[in-house]
Amino acid sequence: MSARRDPLPRTAAPLDGIDAIVEDEIAAGRIPGAVVVVGRDGAVVYRRAFGRRTASPVRPMTLDTIFDLASLTKVMATTPAVLQLVEQGRIGIDEPAATYWPEFAANGKRSITIRHLLTHYSGLRPDLSTRPDWRGYPAGLRRIVAERPVAPPGRSFLYSDTNFAALGEIVRRVSGEPLDVYCARHVFQPLGLHDTGFRPAEIGRLAPTVYAEGSPRFGSVHDPIADRMGGVAGHAGLFSTADDVARFAQTMLDGGSAGAVRVLRPSTLAQATSPENPDGGFVHRGLGWDLDSPLAADWSGVFAPGVYGHTGYTGTSLWIDPTSRLYVVILTNRVHLPDGDARPLRARIAALVAHTFATRPGAVTETGIDVLEAERFAPLVGRRVGLVTNASARDAGAQRTVDVLHAAPGVELAALFSPEHGLDAAAEGRIQSGRDARLDIPIYSLYGPETRPTPAMLDGLDALVFDVPDVGTRFYTYVTTMAYAMEAAARKGIPFYVLDRPNPLTASIVQGPTLDPDARSFTGYFPIPIRYGMTIGELAGLFNVENGIGADLHVITMRGYRRDAWYDDTGLQWVPPSPNLRSLRQATLYPGVALVEGANVSIGRGTAAPFELLGAPWIDGRGLARYLNGRAIDGVRFEPIDFQPTSEPFRGVRCHGIRIVLLDRNRLDAPALGIEIASALHRLHPRAFRLDDTRPLIAARWVVDAVAEGRDPRWIVDRWRGSLDRFRAVRDKYLRY
User: In degrees, to the nearest 5, what angle opens at C-alpha 514 toward C-alphas 513 and 517?
Assistant: First the structure.
């Protein structure tokens, strides 16, 4: 599928890599087509259309295709409308919404402010119910009035379309114009966005969304609530082209002006794109814009601090990086396909663009795959290769290692092996083996019926390569998967290559109790501390010798790496290695908070902040926070919080507990934090907390016994220091950096 290019714009050659990314995602069946526009320093530097606009009958995607923008409506229509009215003094950011819509106050919503609505801290549910069925704008307003918050306003981040549906109505009441009319007159027309608006009249250039009654939906909004409200709502309903979205993005970069036309003041935009979440809110949101919420995981950790943007359910997205004077527009109609998914496309393009243009301090570490590419794959040329990997393993150009090796001259990539969370690093639970349709090679799951490569899986291979990012924690199962794969390669008599990568928590800090020799399991391969302070390549060397594996081990070492570097010091972009480690902050807390995960507590899986939250229905959150703050634990503090996870344990159940605020990662002893939490729960809730269930991950019998006896956690930490000294003496033999 070839890209269609416009003859006018300048094109930056490094961005040509976007072509392969989009075509790969089309071939994988995740999107039917896309239009991508990248702008920098006031000029368009990349602008291409790919694939198909419609699946049947087939129509090509074109640069002027009009898309259903879904939630980009929030930032391109409703947010500028509200902010204009704020500039005019007609709306106050911290005024109750009921000031402008008195009926809104009903059912416990009197204290919800405009700020709460713009930042998704109102406590309102994500969507209005569609049952019993209803139709019409007035009926939608009655539904909003009937809503009752499920969390106290200002306390919890809960992304909600209802927030912006309410703001759309407030714009109508304050301005005297319906939202679509207001935005057309005061935002779109002044900026020259001629293809942007609600309820589009021109069908010929539209990208359809889902099929309804056998026909693709053209021109009527995909979102069911906006559709019921007549196609105009504050949260969805806007249609536009990539060029218009790009022009809007440039207006944002230019401080709210397009030429001589100003739609917002620079100071207003600066406020809107800075953290404006209520005090105590731990998910960073601007006014309308997403800064660092879980919904921004594809890009917020990739670009320099200060980046902001938004995504749309139909497969649309917009990111703006003011530091690099850069924007990225990706429009797809991924919902046109039954299993459409635009997230991999967004993540891959973000990584490539950020690597090409974004301003990041310091030199970039070359990982093992980068070094292998630089050496023209010399160690693997002429070999049939198996690769243990997942989608988080990328080279400096944001290409997946699987794609790099597939295209490597003289190398035959013959089989893939995936660890826990699968090849996409996004799945939960056991995973079945399958086949990569694009590469036409098998994918053997090492987190299903088998956890080790069998001899049959390795038949015909000349080498087994391992490239999976680690998080520097003993019980992260990728470590065991590497060791099991190394054992299998040794038995088969084929060499084992590790493409080394940084330890994101530094490779210089060793912390936590050492695993008991008789406690080995899939979450504890070898007697090492919880934080072992080694890279994955160094750890392979230790396992190979100290555990007598005897593999023909080759480690492709990194260049430009310092072992005291945290991941964000390496210049590399964070790509979540698993679904619940979405940021380096969460990975930093993981070696501590996860220690109690085996017990009857939620550690925040199924919330916006896994490993930053801990709770259970039986916990006294205020008492636990008070007790832990009284312990004066270095590097963290604790706040009481209630939350309702969408994953087990306690799925859909209100939990009381704590939010763990990371203050200083260099002062934090994460395993000691985990023992402090276990001790606190045992002291405060001795009947409810199941301490024995923490044994598999702590994997040091004496530590759990000491907690059960009521020993001070500081006594426990002092006692494990001796084993750390002995481990360091062994570890030193295998260090490469």
Answer: 140
* Chain segment 426-452, per-residue pLDDT in tens: 888 999 999 998 899 999 999 999 999
The per-residue pLDDT for range 342-371, each reduced to its tens digit, is 988 998 898 788 777 755 545 579 999 999
Query: How far are the Cα atoms of 159, 507, 727 from residue 145, in angstroms, in the given order?
Result: 18, 54, 62
What is the β-pairing status of strands 43-54 and 33-40? Answer: antiparallel
Q: Could you tell me where the DSSP H helices lie in 642-733?
A: 670-684, 695-698, 701-708, 713-731
CA distances, 434 to each of 402, 488, 594 (Å): 15, 20, 31
Q: Single out the residue of 522, 478, 483, 538 nearest to residue 728, CA to CA.
A: 538
CA distance 604 to 606: 6
Please give the Cα distance from 59 to 207 (Å, whole number): 9
- Which secondary-structure segment (H or E) carries 25? helix 17-27
The dihedral through the CA atoms of 487, 489, 495, 500 has a sign that is negative
- Alpha-carbon torsion, ordered 456, 457, 463, 469, to 10 deg: -150
- Angle 254-260-265 (CA atoms, 0-180°, nearest 5)? 50
The tokens for 201 are: 């009249």
Pairing between β-strand 463-467 and β-strand 384-389 as defined by DSSP bridges = parallel
CB 156 within 8 A of CB 643: yes
Identify whether 649 is preceded by a cis peptide bond (ω within 30 of 0): yes
Within 10 angstroms of residue 617's Cβ, the number of other Cβ atoms is 14
Pull the structure tokens for residue 184: 């057309």
Residue 576 identity (one-letter amino acid): P
DSSP structure class, residue 518: G
Is the Cβ–Cβ distance between 549 and 543 less than 8 Å? yes
Q: Where do the DSSP E strands lie in 298-342?
A: 308-312, 316-321, 326-331
Q: Residue 37 in contact with residue 303, Cβ under 8 Å? A: no
Q: How does residue 1 score in pLDDT terms, banded at 50, 70 and 90?
A: very low
Give per-residue pLDDT as tens, 597-616.
999 999 999 887 899 999 99
Cis-peptide into 344, omega within 30 deg: no
